[in-house]
Amino acid sequence: MSLENLTLEELKAKRPDLVTAIQKEADETRAKEYEDLSGPWNPDLRHEDLSKEFLLKIMNIWQYAWITLSGTWYEEVRKRYGMDVANECELAAWVNMGEKVNPRYARMAKIELNTVFDCMKALQLPLDNIMRGGLFDGRFDVRGPNEIHVIYDRCVALEGLERNWPERIVPLCHGLEKKMIEVYALHPKFEAVPIKLPNGPRENKEDIACEWIFRLRED
């Protein structure tokens, strides 16, 4: 009888050496997956040595750093040159970054970008993505083969602006956000049509953050 047809118990009885070797290899693989860095320093540490749970925790901090850097950079420009210049620089910087970086996500993930659903996949991959439970937590209602109704119940960026920079809400939500969604979607015919956007801090924090139609133009 070939080994692949043996049950685990039969394999243990017939080839205990093989079972031991497989177990040892599995243990060594698991041992490389760090849950934290409380132990000795490993100068050869690689991302693949970290557990999935550890990587997810780090990704949350990366996201926080990404958003914090954006806000801090904006504020420094505003203090030196005023809000109008800061808004112009912010839009230019985000568009330039999105056009250069985001196509790499699509290539890496093998997204062909033919439909609005492909665009939604592209929007799920950057650090400032639309994945469930992330920075921008939304609900999606498919209205047609190339149209999706989107409601964002939570937006970490809006919450931060409400606390610290309410004067930035309209320039960001009404100006930059539409352009950035369209750049991130990576399709020349993709358009983000705003249905409801905040005009200032929400009186009721349980209200939605914003509402959109995402679609591909037919022209």
Radius of gyration: 24 Å
The residue-averaged pLDDT reads 90
The structure class reads alpha+beta
Broad CATH class = Alpha Beta
Low-confidence stretches: none
In whole angstroms, the N-to-C terminal distance is 64 Å
Helix content: 40-55%
If helices are DSSP runs of H or I spanning 4 or more residues, what is the number of helices? 7
- Total discrete domains: 1
Overall body shape: extended
User: What kind of sheet is the major sheet?
Assistant: 4 strands, antiparallel
> What is the strand content?
5-15%
The CATH architecture assignment turns out to be: 2-Layer Sandwich
Q: Strands of the biggest beta sheet: in what spatial order? A: 1-2-4-3
Number of strands: 4
Series of H and E elements? HHHHHEEHHEE
CATH topology description:
Muramoyl-pentapeptide Carboxypeptidase, domain 2
